[in-house]
Amino acid sequence: ELPPSEFMQVADSTWLVLSVVSNGREPPGCQATGVTKIARSVIAPLAEHHVSVLMLSTYQTDFILVRERDLPVVIHTLAGEFDIYKEESGECVPVTCDDVSNGFLKPKPAASPTLHPVQSPQTRFCVLTVAPDTLPAIATMLIDVLFYSHSPSWDAATGSQDVDSITFFSFSLIEGYISIVMDAETQKRFPSDLLLTSSTGELWRMVRIGGQPLGFDECGIVAQIAEPLAAADISAYYISTFNFDHALVPEEGIAEVIQLLQQRQESGR
């Protein structure tokens, strides 16, 4: 319904959304949440089969976007670990995995993944939700923050944004559930009684992946970040965009996360 515009660029591929629903078989004591919870069982296998994914963590759950043309590979790759369903007319219908014997799903020879630079701004972030019926009360503030308030400081000499003053605000509305990621200073502008967060009210720090636009074609970016964090049982919310990928981790764990990712980069050289 959006009119054609020279200002809007649309990727060629159509993407489908996968959501992973727990079946209660998680090992006891597993504390990691977000992308690290599904790193080994979903993210890593898809990367091994050269499936590019976009990752979107929200306050409620995590979503993995895959290209529609990759769906047969995705189903075959994940069918051994998961019961897979598709939605038809509002109902969940089991998906059967046809037996494939011609070998087209075998992983290709592993190419050396591109090691993208990782930066960590000093900004502290909040992961929040809002009750849908209270959204109108903050609509004006949301519009102001989304479209008018921020003017990122750019270095004219290098053409890049100062990473310590990064502007990041994420709003998602999925099946009626609202999820917001904003910096702690922006949060102060909203009525505190309308923004809901965890009982601990923890703050998050960000690691930003990429030194130039990542695009949508490269495989394994999410896996490179999620797997070492999963191994260390560190929670992370992950948001993929065209320009950069963003992993939010608990503030008290940021030093360990940076060390883990630096070790990953050094071992990959």
TrEMBL record:
Q: Where is the CASTOR ACT domain?
A: 11-78, 201-262
- Kindly list the places in or outside the cell where this protein is found, as annotated in its UniProt entry: Cytoplasm, Cytosol
Q: Keywords in UniProt for this one?
A: Cytoplasm, Phosphoprotein, Ubl conjugation
The terms under GO molecular function for this entry are: arginine binding; identical protein binding
Lineage: superkingdom: Eukaryota
**Principal subcellular localization:** cytoplasm
What Gene Ontology terms for biological process does this UniProt record contain?
negative regulation of TORC1 signaling
Q: Name one Pfam family in it.
A: CASTOR1_ACT-like
Any one Gene Ontology cellular component term annotated for this protein? cytosol
InterPro entries (alphabetical) = ACT-like_dom_sf (IPR045865), CASTOR1_ACT-like (IPR049479), CASTOR_ACT_dom (IPR027795), CASTOR_fam (IPR026249), CASTOR_mTORC1 (IPR051719)
Q: Which residues form a coiled coil?
A: none
Q: Which residues belong to any copy of the Cytosolic arginine sensor for mTORC1 subunit 1/2 ACT-like domain?
A: 116-199
Q: What does this protein do?
A: Functions as an intracellular arginine sensor within the amino acid-sensing branch of the TORC1 signaling pathway. As a homodimer or a heterodimer with CASTOR2, binds and inhibits the GATOR subcomplex GATOR2 and thereby mTORC1. Binding of arginine to CASTOR1 allosterically disrupts the interaction of CASTOR1-containing dimers with GATOR2 which can in turn activate mTORC1 and the TORC1 signaling pathway.
Query: What is the annotated quaternary arrangement, including any partners?
Result: Forms homodimers and heterodimers with CASTOR2. Interacts with the GATOR2 complex which is composed of MIOS, SEC13, SEH1L, WDR24 and WDR59; the interaction is negatively regulated by arginine. Interacts with TM4SF5; the interaction is positively regulated by leucine and is negatively regulated by arginine.
According to its UniProt record, which protein family does this protein belong to?
Answer: Belongs to the GATS family.
Q: What is this protein called?
A: Cytosolic arginine sensor for mTORC1 subunit 1
Q: Which organism is it from?
A: Vireo altiloquus
State the encoding gene. Castor1
